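Fill in residues.
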């Protein structure tokens, strides 16, 4: 006895029914460029937000620890910059600053 239930469709992508004017190689290439540009911008924003979130979390943890924190990169006494750094006098007097974040020559302070 045949069933009147609808048959399950195979998983296949939907068919595109676009007008022929949108299917020219130059039009398709331009649309691909637009989508790729948008994807790059979104990717950049996601990376920027991720870096900002990580930086904010590190600064929050350091505030809880009570450690001095570089206002430029967020390094601390216990977590120095890759390759090492040391505390320098901030020329603008805005907060703690490490040698990796100050331009020009820095005066070395013990860390």
């Amino acid at each position: 006895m045949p069933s009147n239930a609808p048959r399950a469709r195979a998983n296949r992508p939907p068919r595109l029914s676009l007008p022929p004017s949108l299917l020219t190689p130059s039009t398709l290439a331009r649309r691909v460029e637009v989508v790729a540009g948008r994807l790059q911008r979104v990717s950049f924003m996601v990376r920027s937000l991720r870096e900002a979130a990580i930086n904010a979390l590190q600064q929050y943890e350091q505030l809880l620890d009570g450690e001095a924190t570089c206002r430029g990169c967020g390094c601390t006494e216990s977590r120095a910059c890759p390759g090492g750094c040391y505390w320098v006098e901030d020329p603008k007097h805005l907060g703690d600053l490490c040698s990796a974040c100050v331009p020009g020559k820095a005066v070395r302070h013990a860390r």
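The first helix runs from residue 25 to 65.
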